[in-house]
Amino acid sequence: MKLSKSEEELMSHLWKLDKAFMKDLLEEYDDPKPATTTIATLLKRMTDKGFVGFKLFGRSREYFPLVKKSDYFSTHVNGLIKNFFNDSASQFASFFTKETQLSQEELKQLRDIIDGQIKKS
After folding, report:
1. With bands split at pLDDT 50, 70 and 90, how would you rate the model's confidence at 4?
2. I want to staple 51 with a disulfide (CB 3.0 to 4.6 A). Which of 40, 46, 109, 119 is the partner?
């Protein structure tokens, strides 16, 4: 399941904080801050989608992520590879390395990561 752009922004704040009350989440936003009702609506939607959970403390809710950032990101990168690169990770890697104008150092770091993964396999 996918989050909207505003839900992703809110989720990134929640991933950063790990757990937070409404006021903590609002503090993470730049001015002009969204309305409390907007954040409450987003949190309700994200709870319904299974991305966010909460604990009740009296009338206050402490929210926490139910999905890890790495899992969410991985799902979307894999979807991108499937939908735009014919399910070919090598086509994606080729596009990524050619089109993102990586420095020599960044390319060497990528090579080291790939070499490390090959050795693990």
Report:
1. very high
2. 46
Strand pairing report for 60-65 and 52-57: antiparallel
Q: Across-strand partners of 20?
A: 63
pTM of the model as a whole: 0.74
Q: What is d(CA 6, CA 13) in angstroms, rounded to the nearest whole number?
A: 11
- Yes or no: say if 63 and 43 are a contact pair by the CB < 8 Å rule: yes
Has residue 104 got a pLDDT over 90?
Answer: no
Backbone angles phi, psi at 82, to 5 degrees: -65, -45
**Contact status, residue 111 vs residue 102, Cβ threshold 8 Å:** no
Residue 1 reports pLDDT greater than 80: no
| Cβ–Cβ < 8 Å for 42, 35 | no
- Please list, residue by residue across 22-60, b when 16 or more beta carbons sit within 10 angstroms of its beta carbon and e when fewer do: eeebbeeeeeeeeeeeebeebbebbeeeebbebeeeeee
Longest pairwise C-alpha distance within the chain: 55
